[in-house]
């Protein structure tokens, strides 16, 4: 069901992005150190650049998580406004056409 408020109530998988960034951070650090020890400066520079990108991503993800439910709703915040179970009262519209003919009883 769409309510029209999706941009305001959209959820982001920041926690999943956090753990993926932590995983990438570990591998980027490991790659940088390993390629420096082996003597491959080109690959070490590539891993160092990736390390920088992952560090910036981790910083932004942690910042958004710390900003609270305004930016990252928790599990207790519903994604949509609750729906009324009762239909709204509709005013009766006048019928179009001829007025009904009165019935005569004998």
Calculate Rg over CA atoms: 30 Å
Number of helices: 3
What is the H/E order?
Answer: HHH
Percentage of residues assigned to helices? 40-55%
**Straight-line N-to-C gap:** 56 Å
Instruction: Note the beta-strand portion.
Output: under 5%
Mean pLDDT: 79
Sheet with the most strands? none
Shape: rod-shaped
Count every beta strand, where a strand is a DSSP E run of 2 or more residues: 0
Structural class: mainly alpha
Uncertain spans, ≥5 residues at pLDDT below 50?
Answer: none
What's this entry about, in short?
The protein is mainly α. The protein has 3 helices and no strands.
Polypeptide structure, described:
The chain contains 3 helices and no strands. With about 110 residues, it is mainly alpha-helical. It has helices at about 5-10, 15-40, 40-65. About 50% of the residues lie in helices and about 0% in strands. Helix 2 packs antiparallel against helix 3.
Write the layout of secondary structure elements.
Layout: H1 6-9, H2 14-38, H3 41-66
Helix pairs in contact: 2-3
Salient structural properties:
single chain; 0% strand; mainly alpha; 3 helices; 106 residues
